[in-house]
Structure formats: C-alpha cells, structure tokens
Amino acid sequence: MKKYGLIGYPLGHSFSKGFFNEKFENEGIEAEYINFEIPTIDALLEVLASNPDLEGFNVTIPYKQKVMSFLDSITSEARSIGAVNVVKVEHRNNTYHLKGYNSDALAFKQSIEPMLERFHKKALILGTGGASKAVKYALRSLGLETINVSRYERPGTIQYQRITPNVIKEYNVIVNCTPCGMYPHFDECPQLPYEAMDSKTILYDLIYNPDETMFMRNGKQYGATVKNGLEMLLLQAYISWDIWNNND
Question: Which of 6, 38, 160, 170 lies 20 to 30 Å (CA to CA) from residue 90?
Fold first, then answer.
C-alpha cells in the first residue's frame, strides 16, 4: 500500500488527511494519508526512516521554508518562491531522493484570478511566512504590485499601525496569510481600518476553518468581496496528487 502524508505542527486544523483518505476510498486507490505532527523539522529524518514506503508528503506551517535544506532537488519555481509545500519521494537503489515543489502559488492564482477587475492593481499580503511567498509570486505573475504587512520592522514590509484608510483604498486586494482568526481563535482578526473598504475591495483569507473568519466578516460589512482558502486548498491537493504520480 502506498503511503502519503503531511508534516507540520500543529496539525489539528488540517484538512488534507480527510480529503486524501476519502479520495483513496472513493476511487479504490490502495493508499493511505497520515499526519506526521513533528515538533521540529529535524524529526523529518525519523519520519522517513520509519516510513520506507512513503511516496510523498505535503508541508505546512511552520516548515515550508525550513524543509528546503533537507531536499535533494527543488523546482526552479519553488526556489524562486522560497518555499516548498509538496515533496515527492523517489526511491532509488535502497535510498531515496526528495524533490520539492510549490503548489500553493498555482492554486492561489487559479482561485483569485476570476475575482480580479481592472482596478485591482495593488495588494497587501498579511504575513511573511512560506504561504505569503507563494501568494506574492502568484499576484506578481498576475501583474499586481505587492507589499507584505508584518507586526515587526522588517525590510520591504509595512507595519499594521501604518495602514491608513488611504492605504486600504490604494491596495484594494488584501490576502491574509497568517493564522490570525483560525480555529479555535474565531474572535481574532488582523488589525486594519475595515471601515475604509468598499465594493472594490477583495479580502482573501487562506484560512478555511471557520468558513467565514472575522477578517472576512468585517470586510463584508463594508461591501468587500470575500473568499476563504477552501478552493485554494482543494486545488493544491489536486496538484499535489499530480506531482506524486507523474514521471518527471
């Protein structure tokens, strides 16, 4: 039986295990998908050693960047993005070769592109982690200018307290790439001047649990178009499956 999985910490919120195991059952595929909740990235070596039949795995918070140093090869796109969320395990002569990919960028691009209008030219990306790197790559490929929002002073970022109503009007696409508002913290949201939003504002939240975060709800109150991360998650899962089962 083939084995696939997910590495990250924590994994209580994860959708992937249920999605893939249901897919395997419905399609009669002899495989299983396991959550490998590892407290440090170094524990990946133990996962590989104890699961010699592992064919591939997804990578989630907080290891999308840290995992790269463990890989034997990385696609040029994933290297440009600076984050990996899909790893293919190729078995060669009693050893393995780990190849890293990024499915987040393509999945996000396919999900947000139908929402964009000609007046959507600039985007705020909330967060600076691995997911934000994929979102930046996708938005720039669609022709949007981007700037990352951070709680801390970092080069090339703007801080939350500096986001004025005028900034919201100019950067009318806002993507939440942070865990703020994710289950069980339903009552939290990024601190933004939501009252400056209107029908030209897009709020895209990579969170999918809950279905509607406070970030989305606050924006919708002022007419913003909102979307959660479920479609992106489904798209990246399909892309992951294609990666694990192609012969590149």
Answer: 38
Catalytic: 88? no
Q: Tell which residue, 86, 124, 140, 147, has the closest CA to residue 205.
A: 124
Q: What does the chain look like in DSSP terms, one character per residue?
A: -EEEEEEES--TT--HHHHHHHHHHHTT--EEEEEEE-SSGGGHHHHHHH-TTEEEEEE-TT-TTGGGGG-SEE-HHHHHHT---EEEEEEETTEEEEEEE--HHHHHHHHHGGG--TT--EEEEE--SHHHHHHHHHHHHTT-EEEEEESS--TTEEEGGG--HHHHHHS-EEEE-S-TT-TT-TT------GGG--TT-EEEES--SSSS-HHHHHHHTTT-EEE-SHHHHHHHHHHHHHHHTS--
Q: Which of 64, 88, 99, 133 is catalytic?
A: 64
Dump pLDDT digits (tens) for 12-60: 877 899 999 999 999 999 999 999 999 999 999 999 999 999 999 999 9
For the stretch 61-71, pLDDT in tens is: 899 999 999 99
pLDDT digit string, tens, across residues 79-113: 999 999 999 999 988 899 999 999 999 999 999 99
